[in-house]
Amino acid sequence: MTASQSFTHEVELREETVVKRYRSWDRQEPRCEWAALKLLAEHAPGLAPAPVTADLDGAPPTVVMSRLPGVPVRGLDAGPEVVAAMAAALTRLHRRVPVGGGLAEAAWNPASALAHVRAWAGKRPDLGDDPDVRRAFTEGTSWLARQTLDRLRAHAAPPVLGLADGNLANYLWDSAAARVRLVDWEDSGRADRAFELAEVSEHISHIDGRLDRDLLLRHLELGPDEAARVREFRRLLALGWLLVLGPGGPASSRNPPGALAWQAERVLALL
């Protein structure tokens, strides 16, 4: 038996199961995870851990799920086989799992992201003296001021079940089965597919390892309108990470070396 910890929960790895004990649950994280796992077990078995038992009203709340094989995609030099498997997993998730009105909207969504990034930009955070970083901020905030961005919050397409967290550590690559499975559903909910794809494309976890994001999106065969929405959401999220990573940002103390310069290049490339 081994254990690992994160900011929001403690994970105990057993031989066949995983026990997740939540350190915070003000956003109903245990209930979100349990609801998602049950939905996935019914409509896309094998794509995520199978639900075993839950004590949602415990102190702390606990969810027990099956243990999946594989290693996190985060940190891998992910070749085309891994990218194709990620695309297959996302396609199965978005096409096979129905989302009814009873499922709560994911807290991290187009409206909240746009509001957060605009709020961060409005504080004009300290981004240091790197001219490329300053240029990325200037061009990014100019783009962010466009009123047309508010239209992104309205989306006519049916919602999907989304992880609402693009961290590549949530994607497990099983080389023996040539499959990718998804874990950590505590922030999940009803989601906008274009936003979800942008989130996994632009999460800062890409700084560890290598994964061809554009190839991933090509595998997903987006239509013109959805591709345009994904592109705008990618710009929004990349700019948000730039603001978070700056010397005055909440993630600055955990930045890998060169993270801010790397993210500035990313913002400028997307713009």
TrEMBL record:
<dbReference type="InterPro" id="IPR011009">
    <property type="entry name" value="Kinase-like_dom_sf"/>
</dbReference>
<protein>
    <submittedName>
        <fullName>Phosphotransferase family protein</fullName>
    </submittedName>
</protein>
<dbReference type="InterPro" id="IPR002575">
    <property type="entry name" value="Aminoglycoside_PTrfase"/>
</dbReference>
<dbReference type="Pfam" id="PF01636">
    <property type="entry name" value="APH"/>
</dbReference>
<feature type="domain" description="Aminoglycoside phosphotransferase">
    <location>
        <begin position="15"/>
        <end position="228"/>
    </location>
</feature>
